Amino acid sequence: MQRIVRVAPLLLPWLLDGVDEPTAERFLVRLTAAAYAGCTARWIPECAAPGRRGPGTTY
Question: So what's the pLDDT on residue 28?
């Protein structure tokens, strides 16, 4: 479980990249309150920030 917690900030935005809003919401509401808050308030916006390398980019 600790391993999942460490990668959640990278994994969850990646899983939701390109997913339509209703599908993303159905996924997000199943998360714990802390994971939901982190994903919606911080992790997804940070991954979507201009200049940020994310899913689908070449490193």
Answer: 92
